[in-house]
Automatic annotation (TrEMBL):
Gene name of the encoded protein: PIGF
Gene Ontology annotations of biological process type: GPI anchor biosynthetic process
Assigned keywords, A-Z: Endoplasmic reticulum, GPI-anchor biosynthesis, Membrane, Transmembrane, Transmembrane helix
Protein name (database record): Phosphatidylinositol glycan anchor biosynthesis class F
Pfam families hit by this protein: PIG-F (PF06699)
Organism: Microcebus murinus
Membrane topology: Multi-pass membrane protein
Subcellular location: Endoplasmic reticulum membrane
Membrane-spanning ranges: 9-29, 41-62, 83-101, 113-135
């Protein structure tokens, strides 16, 4: 059973990584003059949409946290609405944090908010898919020795790594603020993605070693 979970986890990671790569190349076939730098706002929306869609599809297909209890339609609708509210709260919270850490309050508001959206996509969306809108479960997973499955362990590692990657990527921004690739938080996005990818692979490798 654990071997099957590790295989499913590996395939899930590969598809998530592949979705980010697709968000870079596919839009260029449909959108004229598309590039990450020149049309960065469009790319942020597309990347967020790709990652969210893949996470949702994988959740319904793989069902890592499947429950055998049947829930009513009203319960499912309520759960979905709570997830949407949690995601929006996450976006606004990250936006406020970015402003407190030095992002412009009025200028580049859309850029900063979309960066908050994509960070929420990398962190909050997987939490909502796996744990649902359950704050107690979130606190348990992100507390010391609180994970109970390889899925929760992977979630813990990749979420923390996304925050660290976004923070490290923002460090060089004040060094050359006037360059376009600095203004649109590209470095932060790059390191966020790299950290997410690396920790996805490392968490799967760690679980494989434990199994062997």
């Amino acid at each position: 059973m654990k071997d099957n979970d590790i295989k499913r986890l590996l395939y899930t990671h590969l598809l998530c990584v592949f979705s980010i790569i697709l968000s870079v190349f596919i839009p260029s076939f449909f959108l004229e003059n598309f590039s990450i730098l020149e049309t960065h706002l469009t790319w942020l929306c597309i990347c967020s949409g790709f990652v969210t869609a893949v996470n949702l599809v994988l959740y319904f297909v793989v069902k890592p946290n499947a429950s055998y209890k049947r829930s009513s339609l009203s319960h499912k609708v309520t759960r979905f609405l709570k997830c949407c509210i949690y995601f929006l709260m996450s976006c606004f919270t990250f936006h406020i944090i970015f402003v407190l850490y030095g992002a412009p309050l009025i200028e580049l508001v859309l850029e900063t908010f979309l960066f908050a959206v994509i960070l929420s996509t990398f962190t909050t969306i997987p939490c909502l898919c796996l744990l649902g809108p359950n704050l107690k479960a979130w606190l348990r997973v992100f507390s010391r020795n609180g994970v109970t499955s390889i899925w929760e362990n992977s979630l813990q590692i990749t979420t923390i790594s996304s925050f660290v990657g976004a923070w490290l990527g923002a460090l060089p921004i004040p060094l050359d603020w006037e360059r376009p690739w600095q203004v649109v938080h590209t470095e932060a996005l790059t390191l966020l993605s790299v950290a997410w990818h690396l920790e996805y692979g490392r968490s799967t490798e760690d679980q494989t070693k434990k199994l062997n």
